[in-house]
């Protein structure tokens, strides 16, 4: 009898277990014996699928574009292109012609990944449960690994453009000589250390803030949806009240999803533009 009660208690769904279940990744270790290195399969698969859908949609629209009266979809895509191109021109004044496409790619990809948060977590959990995946998180940008991978890609482009524009010697000189300089000569060893530390902090903080801002907002949004959904466990009144709150948060979340994609894109352009400038 005691064993039956223990088993029932173990299988009973509590608010803590409900949230923990939806916050658990489908993780596959790279080493069969365990260890630190592992892959969040749900994040990787969802990112690839959403990237194919996003850029497949843009490719299909551009293939069907016409110089005459555009369709609604073509007009929407053209407005998006023009908007992002104007934003890039206002920040980046270099000669590279791929900065605007990089900004567009970043914005569209992050927007589609963020938009996965609109799908009800219980519906997604049930669907993937039918497929045999009992732990599947559908929002890639709520995984810090995704946001860090994106921000490190931007960081790599920033370093690349810094070396390309200033050459390796100029970039290394800026690393140890800016912003305080190296004069007077008798203070140059101390200034060398201060300059290097100052620039290292700046370089490290960029990918950290870039990634954690997006991750924090999307993780919090996902968690709030779950907390509001728990109202349904309190009865009919709680279900109605929770449904109203969920609807309100979903409407507000539309702003967050788009705004975070826009901020991530703008910071990408800002960091690339800064790589072309000196202290």
Explain the overall architecture.
- By secondary structure, this protein is mainly α.
- It has one domain.
- Helix content is 73%, strand content 2%.
- The chain contains nine helices and two strands, in the order H-H-E-E-H-H-H-H-H-H-H.
- A two-stranded antiparallel ribbon has the order 1-2.
- Strand 1 and strand 2 form a beta hairpin.
- Helix 3 crosses helix 5.
- It is globular, with a radius of gyration of 24 Å.
- The protein starts with a helix and ends with a helix.
- The N terminus is likely disordered.
Shape: globular
Largest sheet: 2 strands, antiparallel
Q: What strand order characterises the main sheet? A: 1-2
Mean pLDDT: 88
SSE order: HHEEHHHHHHH
Count helical runs: 9
Quick rundown:
The chain is mostly helical and 279 residues long. The chain is built from 9 helices and 2 strands; from the N terminus they run ααββααααααα.
């Amino acid at each position: 009898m005691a064993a039956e009660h223990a088993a029932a208690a173990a299988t009973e769904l509590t608010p803590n277990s409900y949230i923990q279940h939806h916050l658990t990744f489908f993780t596959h270790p790279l080493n069969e014996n365990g260890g630190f290195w592992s892959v969040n399969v749900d994040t990787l698969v969802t990112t690839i699928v959403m990237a194919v859908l996003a850029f497949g949609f843009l490719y299909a629209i551009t293939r069907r574009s016409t110089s005459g009266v555009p369709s609604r979809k073509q007009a929407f895509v053209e407005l998006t292109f023009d908007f992002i191109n104007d934003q890039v021109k206002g920040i980046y004044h270099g000669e590279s012609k791929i900065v605007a496409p990089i900004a567009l790619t970043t914005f569209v990809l992050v927007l589609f990944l963020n938009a996965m948060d609109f799908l009800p977590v219980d519906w997604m959990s049930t669907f993937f449960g039918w497929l045999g995946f009992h732990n599947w998180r559908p929002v890639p940008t709520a995984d810090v690994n995704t946001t860090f991978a994106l921000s490190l890609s931007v960081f790599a482009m920033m370093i690349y453009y810094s070396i390309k524009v200033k050459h390796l010697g100029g970039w290394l000189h800026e690393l140890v000589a800016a912003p305080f300089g190296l004069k007077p000569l008798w203070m140059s060893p101390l200034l060398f250390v201060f300059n290097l530390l100052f620039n290292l902090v700046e370089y490290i903080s960029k990918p950290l803030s870039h990634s954690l801002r997006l991750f924090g907002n999307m993780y919090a949004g996902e968690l709030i949806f779950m907390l509001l959904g728990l109202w349904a466990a309190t009865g009919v009144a709680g279900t109605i009240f929770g449904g109203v709150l969920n609807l309100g948060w979903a409407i507000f979340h539309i702003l967050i999803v788009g705004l975070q994609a826009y901020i991530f894109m703008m910071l990408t352009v800002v960091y690339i533009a800064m790589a072309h400038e000196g202290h």
